Amino acid sequence: MMPELRGRSDGPTISISAERFWWRIAYGATGEPGVVRNLPRGGTPSANEIWIPTGRRTELLLSSPDVIHSLWVPAIAGKMDAIPGRVTRLALEPTEPGVYRGVCAEFCGTAHAQMGLRVVAVPEEEYVAYVEAQAAPAAVTGGPGLQAFVRNGCAGCHTVRGTPADGDVGPDLTHVAGRMTIAAGRLPTTAENMVAFIRAPQHIKPGVEMPAFGMLPEEELALIADWLGSLE
Ligand code: HEC
Ligand SMILES: [Cu+2]
Predict the structure, then answer these.
(1) Where a domain ends, among 134, 169, 189?
(2) Distance in angstroms (rounded) separating the CA atoms of residues 63 and 15
(3) Is residue 225 part of a domain?
(4) Are residues 117 and 186 in the same domain?
């Protein structure tokens, strides 16, 4: 039998910026490195859920805009620091499909313990289809949900591709309903959890860098949550 070739990277390269207190992801980013995060710009954004192909060696490029974090997915890899001003690398090469849980393994502030992620390993065809679907604009790019999202200031911090919402502070929400969790692994993605989080993110994740919207009328919250819930 031929020995396995080690050290090759025959899979995708995925950029991960560790933020307070979530993981900013970009598939297929190839632009000039950004000043703040040092990672290649562009690509298809996502958050907190890293899809990778099985049987390939995927390379993660890690950095951070402010403080040191550490990515740790115990079942498939050792820890790797995400350091401001630098880019570190972590190779993942799972053989078995599965959902692997990860955490931030370096104390980074109040919500550090709620800074989780999922690595989703799938056969290569499925990986390619997933990334293609993520690159598409949002399923619903108009209507009362979007209007409520914009008039309440959510668009200042969040992007929903295909709409005027192009904020870059928090996670890209273009396909938020297709992710397993919200708030970096803190809650399963359900309509009730979406409303609860938007109303009082501090209750769910103390230290979170999203303001509370508890002053919004129920109907307004429902409009927004219904719309976000349709964005798979
Ligand atoms: C000042 C910036 C800011 C504003 C304004 C803001 N958010 Fe956020 N939002 C964030 C940040 C930062 C996170 C990441 C929180 C975390 O997990 O640590 C977040 C997370 C979320 C999430 C979870 C996404 C995920 O994939 O985990 C949802 C849903 C969300 N925001 C909806 C909204 C809605 C709806 C509004 C308006 C009513 C809004 N946000 C306003 C910064 C903001
Ligand atoms: Cu962290």
Answers:
(1) 134
(2) 8
(3) yes
(4) no
Top mutation candidate among 69, 210, 218, 232 for ligand 1, by most atoms within 8 Å of CB: 210
Nearest one of 76, 78, 102 to 18, comparing CA atoms: 102
Residues 124 and 186 in one domain: no
pLDDT bin (cut points 50, 70, 90) of residue 9 is confident
Ligand 1 centroid – CA 210 distance (Å): 5
224 with 112, same domain?
Answer: no
Strands 88-92 and 49-53: unpaired
Instruction: Point out the ligand nearest to the CA of residue 18.
Output: 2
- pTM of the entire structure? 0.95
| Inter-residue contact 194 to 149 (CB < 8 Å) | no
Distances (CA, A) of 65 to 24, 36, 95, 107, 156: 11, 6, 32, 15, 19
Give, in order, the Cα–Cα distances in Å from 171 to each of 34, 79, 106, 174, 178.
Answer: 17, 23, 21, 9, 13
Same domain, yes or no: 97 and 63 = yes
Number of domains comprising the chain:
2
- The model's pLDDT over 44-63, given as tens digits with 9 standing for 90+, comes to 999 999 999 999 999 999 99
- Where does a domain end: 134, 161, 191? 134
d(CA 83, CA 105): 13
- Cα–Cα distance for residue pair 78/184, rounded to 1 Å: 20
- 98 and 153 share a domain? no
| Domain span at 212 | 144-229
When pLDDT is cut at 50, 70 and 90, the band that residue 1 belongs to is very low
